[in-house]
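Study this chain:
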Amino acid sequence: MARIAGVDLPQKKRIEYALTYIYGIGLTRAREILARTGIDPNTRVHELSDADAAKLRNDIQEHYMVEGDLRKKVQMDIKALMDLGNYRGLRHRKGLPVRGQKTKTNARTRKGKRKTVGSA
């Protein structure tokens, strides 16, 4: 069982796709890591040797911020925007879309379930 950055990687998947299960690592970054460590991208996770897993672990720890640290940094950045009181911070605070999307009809993901406002 390969455990990297606190995440159990799926055993049957190719390593380049399995690395994307780690928060902060996408496909491009996974391919960069594999090229730097010299591991074949077609290798399945269960075929990985302990030495290769250690190489991956060290490379990720050395070059990238992932999982808990990255989540914490993102939350701190959002909190800083809210504390500044700028437009993006206000949108975060109100639970509305931050990046200019319209809110008249859509934005249900950010706004939540509809609250019907009726007359008494």
Observations:
- The first helix runs from residue 15 to 18.
